[in-house]
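Re: your question from the hallway

Yes, I did run it. Sequences:
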Amino acid sequence: MDTTFEVEDRGLQYVGASRIEGPLVVVERIRDVGYDEVVEILDAAGHPRLGRVLDVSGNQAVIQVLEGTTGLSNKTLHTRFLGESFRVPVSRQMLGRVFDGLGRPADGGSPPLSADRRDVNGMPINPYARRYPREFIQTGLSAIDGMNALVRGQKLPVFSGNGLPHDRVSAQIIRQACLLEEEVKFSIVFAAMGVKHDVAEFFIRNLRDSGALSRAIMFFSLADAPSVERLLTPRVALTMAEYLAFDCGQHVLVLLTDMTNYCESLREVGTARGEIPGRKGYPGYLYSDLASIYERAGRIEGSPGSITQMAILTMPADDISHPVPDLTGYITEGQIVLDRDLFQRGIYPPIAGLPSLSRLMKDGVGKGYTRDDHPILASQLFACYAYVKRVRGLADVIGEGELSSLDRQYLEFGEAFETRFLKQDEYENRSIETTLNLGWDVLSTLPRDELHRVSDALLEKYYHESEGTPVHEAPPQGSVSG
Amino acid sequence: MTVTGTMESAATRISGPIVTASGMYAAQMYEVVQVGSLGLVGEVVRLVGDYATIQVYEDTTMLKPGAPVRCTGVPLSVWLGPGLVGNIYDGIQRPLPGIQASSGAWIRRGEKVDPLDTERRWTFEPLVRSGEVVTAGQAIGQVAETPLVNHLIMVPPDVSGTIQSIVDKGDYRLIDRLAVVETTMGMRDLTMVQQWPVRVPRPIRERLRITEPLITGQRIIDTFFPIGKGGAAAIPGGFGTGKTITQHQLAKWSNADIVVFIGCGERGNEMTEVLREFPELKDPRSGRPLMERTILIANTSNMPVAAREVSIYTGITLAEYYRDMGLSVAVFADSTSRWAEALRELAARLEEMPAEEGFPASLPTRLAQFYERGGTVTTLGGTQASVSIVGAVSPPGGDFSEPVTQHTRRFVRCFWALDTELANARHYPSIHWLHSYSEYVEDVGPWWKKEAPDWVDLRTEALTLLQREERLQQIVKLVGPDVLPDGQRLVLFIAEIMKDGFLAQSSFDENDMYCTPERQVALLRIILTLYHRGRDLIEGGVPLARIRSLGCVPQILRAKSAFSNTELEKLTELAQRITEETEALAKEFTKEAT
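Structure:
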């Protein structure tokens, strides 16, 4: 296999190792080796594998082998230190191509020619140099646009579970995401960590069908690739994204899937190194490590480009307090949570109403961005839907018949909210107008006095009695894109 | 300053942010060292014979064994002087605007920028004359740092003696000599800037009792769970419960003279938001931009973890310095859990034996040391001043039984528990009224009594009502609300009003975001008036439905945002209306009865 590393051969090779354990190799009697330096390890047959230095002292280096240690032997292994940290070439020509998890071509094409090679770890963005994300992205999904709006430069993960349609939802977002005024298409950087071949195939097909493949770069570290490789895949992808966004001025949408697999690789390496484990065996630095990925999103002064990040993760046993979703939620600017109950009731997209949240929504919606009523409408929908949950709990105990008439109206509202507002077709692209009008339609199934959060002026303008003829045409279906 | 490092000092092992170096026999604990050719800043955290373990504040990629290590002989210190206010620093007090000017949007390694502008001239006005005897902490002059901050230039804590000479009023640079003091140890030059090691609390004369609340303009805090000036509070909450927004609200509206906001291991965009918002927002008391009294420390989650550990100390040291001028300072740390995690990460790299959940056994001590740096004090200069500390806590999985939350609880006297369910219903601030507490109620009671004689009674009655509601809700969950008698359903009804019309407070609404103490009391009084009247009515046989449909009810719910802080008379009118409407209702029913 070709490597994309064209580092001058320093001619110094170390033969043999003192210890091989899991993904780690310990080489003795080394000199002039740096922390985090890239290593090439040759097995008995002379095939190279890439590795990284995790710990270096006077005469010993601990190396993490990215491509697995199967077949390596203490006696025959050759090590070459490449004199720099892990770098990948970046260029615009890489758009439309598919690479492996370490940034090497996986589509049969030639390695990208570029003199510009970047350290995959990047550098932290100076908070003072950040520009605050404000532009509303219309995803065409009411559950997101209406209640958890995404803005350009945000990092918003999708918390899902096995068997839930997170791939379909994110593919739909990639297809439909656009800004309101400008006709700017997002460039897409896609990183798959430990997902199955058919998932990769699904995304490639989807991008091709929607004509987005030519503005996408894909990095695949699939389920059968060595797990340690995954630790670099999101960094390789984000290095590329930073180049496109801040050097080329493009708007980049980065999709990382599945972050749970990434964290498991991290745990694997941590355990092999004999580190003290934190919660559920994950290393204590999981938060910092995840932050070094998620924080590589946003906008900066002096560049027109942006990086918007969507990380998909599957919550083991649908447990939102599991360390991976938990720490992710602490770093990202909100989360879209998929709900199994909704999905089982045939509601697509099954985006849970209450636990989903977009922290940056407040700055990207409302007057001058979407429509003046948007923030209040969202807040009122949340409040009413929260009450629906309580009423449903009560109805389970005492039966629907025993509920007060107001509570029964809330149940109707809940039903309308889920089946008319949340539910939509996989290829239905709703405009924000449609979404907001639909929101008022479902709110209007409740008595006007129940809408405490809405001012009289807005009620006057948008509230309409549900018994009579609705002001807006009954559920507008929006434009259906193919 | 003596340079203790020798040419033989060199790195021997590199493992992430932890570097071991040899030839360090003369190094001191917590001394600052520079590692490698880039001069990466680090701190000595362990000494074993000739070897020192160094915690490096910058990324160590490609650092090699054999790299030179240079000792500086001084512990990690901050610069204290005019120019701090309105600035934004990283965890080791490097100014982020300065870093941007030299390395662009990204933070390059080995950047060295002075914390304060040494070229800028400040107008210094002397307050003492030559020949006068000065003691530690005494002001020798003043500088108008911002229109809100009169910066006192003080005698450093280790100096006292007779002023030999002092300059006249005029414009001087930070490093210019302003005065010479003859001490028992010889002559000392005084400038506008002094340095202080961050891990050492600045000395005070004595600690005082807390008597005054820190008014935050947030109803649930000021009225229900007040924090005293000089007190310490914790805001624990799972993700998405609004810790940061609550912290921002407090930082904006607290009646402190100086606000130090420490973004410790949190999101970059949140700091950007503060930077964007604070210069535009006006302090409700002075009408000046909030940035003119704010200092920001930003060590975001993707910045080096060792610098995150120290950022807390950097922030609190700056706070103590302004306290020493006789000001009331509020420190907001978001989040102390990230700081504790940095401790854990570094301890693990040092191969320390872990205690609970991998945290080092010293965690409670470190937390206590941090929170104890707050307090109401008499400064060395003889004035009364305070540092209040509000720390956000991010418990994993929102579980308050984890070590950081539990240990923090031991050292704070005010606990604002954020609740996921409230946040999910978008009830903000999502501080739960039954899980939160404040031990400062007794301390600040007398202050409130002057403001509103019935404060204690109103507060107690409101909390009791909310407690009763919680118990009734348990029954409602089983049998539904309709079987309850009207008297109990009135409690549910009033509690609902209290939640929507008093406890929930919008941080975006012009009128609602900041609520003066007088208006807080007035609003609460109105709600409780409706409760008392309603109770009488129900005893008189009036059905609850009639009370619910009174015209004043929607008005009470919207009163918090309909009227501004200066329109207190509107609230009086509303109270009047409640009386009229309920009296009319009562009359109607007495007529029917007769």
